[in-house]
Amino acid sequence: MCGRVIVDYDEIISGAKSTEIAAWLSELPQGAQSNWNLAPTQPIPIVFTSDKDQQKHFDLAHWGIIPPWSKDGSARFTFNARVETLIEKPTFAPSVKSQRCAFPVSGFYEWTGKKGSRTPHAIFGPKPILALAGLYRWWKSPDSEWVLTATILTRSSAGVMERLHDRMPVFLSDELTSDWLNPEIVGNLDLVNLAADLAAPISRELTEYEVRPLRGNGRELIQPAS
Questions:
Q1: CA-CA distance, 162 to 121, in Å (whole number)?
Q2: Domains of the chain (ranges plus CATH)?
Q3: Model confidence over 96-143: pLDDT tens digits?
Q4: What is the pTM of this model?
């Protein structure tokens, strides 16, 4: 799974040129602030190409897809979406066709150990930006405000992640980025499975180390525990 991410905007912008999502990373979204302990329901950066006007966007989204039938904006356990059951879930399935996105993050955390004494690990990709495959969806609030919401796709763990957790994010490969973010390419189960398959080689290039318990928010959270 993926329940905490690291978003260092200075690092993301400076490292954008080395990634396939550079064309989407223009101006920072309004209100964007670096966060070393970003949790579900908080504003999280995503990039996508609008299926309405084909414009590239770098925006903040509510982390967790809110389905249209939600009356108050509450939605449980929608911050991750399992690729194995994605097409079967009405909360996620409509977005597969043309509302796919990527989360440009600096890294994320995972925990090991028994409940009550779990150890957090900081995990980073081979490049300054780790792109996570996702889906987005617009939710209309009771005040008629349109809210951008999004979820991170997950698959069974591979590579470095196997010793940490049984699930991991779907790391978006450079070779699939353009197609994944192109709403004119109709998404289906084959495209989702391809994204999941191409995440495996990236998982072998991850680095990870133990950090101290996550309290507060700041760059010190990613310092090694030892």
A1: 13
A2: 5-222 (3.90.1680.10)
A3: 999 999 999 999 999 998 887 899 999 999 999 999 999 999 999 999
A4: 0.96
Residues 6+ apart with CB under 8 A from 76: none
- Distance CA(114)–CA(131), nearest Å, equals 29
Q: Which tokens belong to 122?
A: 């900081």
167 neighbors 175 (Cβ within 8 angstroms): no
Which of 92, 4, 81 shows the shortest CA–CA distance to 40? 4
| Residue 47, amino acid | V
- Identity at 21, one-letter amino acid code: I
Q: Which amino acid does the sequence have at 43? A: P
**Per-residue three-class SS string for 131-157:** EEEEEEEEEECCCCCEEEEEEEEEEEC
CA distance 80 to 92: 10
pLDDT digits (tens, 9 = 90+) for 55-77: 999 999 999 999 999 999 888 88
